[in-house]
Design a protein that fits this description.
The protein has about 150 residues and is of the alpha+beta class. The chain has one domain. The longest helix has 20 residues.
């Protein structure tokens, strides 16, 4: 079977999916949300999660990936929890029963943080950046895989 005949159905299917399914643009509310994985619901783990979420939301809102490397971010990360408007946990092992008490307090959770534009926009301004609220470019991903040859 030639390479073209193997890839043709995939290419046709992908083009149909792309034309039929409209990509929904992220809402303003989505831009000001962030999520990370933490172990357990302890305050120590929550604070480290808040720091990672702050980095992620600043990059997402501004589009500037250089922000987390700025020296000013050290002081901002120390008070990352003060910028969070709300947060919630979701147990990543939901539905899997605990077999014993060992490790039950360190189950992995998704920590979702919500931020308000009124809190994050001044932080961006202090870093010399601003929110990127204009329409963002669409991204297309083209993926090819190749199976190993059989000997």
């Amino acid at each position: 079977m030639t390479r073209f005949s193997r890839l043709a159905p995939v290419a046709i299917g992908l083009s149909i999916c792309l034309t039929v399914h409209r990509v929904m643009a992220a809402t303003l509310e989505d831009l000001y949300n962030s999520q990370t994985i933490v172990n357990g619901k302890y305050e120590k783990n929550r604070q480290s999660g808040f720091k990672r979420c702050l980095d992620a939301v600043l990059v997402r809102v501004s589009g500037d990936q250089r922000l987390p490397a700025k020296p000013e971010m050290t002081a901002l990360r120390d008070k990352a929890g003060s910028f969070v408007a709300g947060f919630r946990y979701r147990d990543r092992m939901e539905g899997i029963p605990n077999h014993d008490d060992q490790g039950t307090y360190d189950r992995p959770h998704n920590l979702s943080c919500q931020y308000k534009p009124a809190e994050i926009d001044p932080v961006l301004a202090s870093l010399g950046s601003r929110p990127w609220l204009a329409e963002r470019p669409r991204l297309a991903v083209f993926l090819t895989t190749e199976r190993g040859t059989m000997h």
